[in-house]
Specification:
The structure is a single chain. The chain is an alpha/beta fold. The chain has one domain: TIM Barrel, CATH 3.20.20.150. It is 42% helix and 14% strand. The protein is built from 10 helices and 8 strands. An 8-stranded parallel barrel has the order 1-2-3-4-5-6-7-8, surrounded by 6 helices. Helix 4 crosses helix 5. The radius of gyration is 17 Å and the shape is globular. The mean pLDDT is 96.
Length: 266
């Protein structure tokens, strides 16, 4: 089934409005909605907006490697799955380790061993089983180490792809964030092509500044054309700030990815 949809983060747009109003405004524009920490949200109020929530944070605390972190990750993932059911949200997002309120790794790790990879894959395998039982999908997001998230283990797209491939479960996919990948790795079209079998979602913002397409160096229109050629039929989400106005940012995002969205109508 070809279901090409655009989503936008209510955490980063319409910032002068109450959160439920941000959700409603994005929904009224015809986009799916994405949220972060569900524990700080009024879930019934979000549900009442009628918005389709595509993605939310899939854990509260924990990490993939340390025994106490693994235990906490799985425990809070179970709670996140309960919240996802309340919202009708299909996708729950993960990172290589827990992040604090400023998005910084709580347990920093500058390198990982083969034993670390095996342990992380085993943790993700446990999470995938939980998600499969509940009819949900966990998505493992890549992050950049140079600007936003130094010291986060398993942060690169190459590392997240390897872990998802190792687990090889339809209940664990990549959340391939092209903003982060451009800063850390580049070669975005080649990266998307290689990662395509493992992608659950693609997130975007321009570099530098993490704002809407057209404000920086990434040619998102060419990327959209490549996604059409690759027959990608999932979700592309704007996880970026508005450079001036949120409506203008959504317009620019929609225009940049129109070659991909319209390709699904043929």
């Amino acid at each position: 089934m070809d279901d090409r949809r655009l989503a936008a983060s209510a955490e980063m747009l319409f910032l002068g409005h109450p959160f439920e109003d941000r959700v409603r405004r994005i929904h009224e524009r015809g986009f799916l909605v994405e949220i972060w920490n569900w524990t700080a949200k009024d879930l019934p109020a979000i549900r009442a907006t009628g918005a389709s929530i595509n993605s939310m944070t899939g854990y509260i605390e924990g990490d993939l490697l340390e025994p106490d972190g693994i235990e906490r990750l799985i425990e809070t993932a179970r709670r996140s799955l309960d919240a996802a059911e309340q919202l009708g949200c299909p996708n729950l997002n993960l990172h290589g380790t827990g992040l604090d309120q400023e998005g910084q790794a709580i347990r920093k790790k500058t390198s990982t061993s083969e034993d670390d990879v095996l342990r992380a894959a085993d943790t993700l395998r446990q999470l995938a089983r939980l998600a499969e039982e509940r009819g949900r999908v966990f998505t493992l997001e890549n992050l950049n180490l140079l600007v936003d998230h130094p010291g986060t283990p398993f942060a690169t797209a190459a590392e997240t792809m390897r872990l998802v491939r190792e687990v090889d479960s339809p209940a664990l996919r990549m959340n391939l964030d092209l903003y982060h990948a451009q800063i850390g790795e580049g070669n975005l079209i080649e990266l998307v092509t290689e990662a395509m079998p493992w992608i659950g979602e693609i997130q975007v913002a321009d570099v530098p500044g993490r704002q809407e397409p057209g404000t920086g160096e990434i040619n998102y229109t060419n990327i959209a054309k490549s996604l059409d050629e690759l027959n990608y039929s999932g979700v592309v989400g704007l996880e970026g700030w508005a450079s001036v106005d949120s409506h203008v940012a959504l317009d620019a995002f929609q225009e940049a990815f129109s070659p991909w969205v319209k390709g699904g109508t043929h």
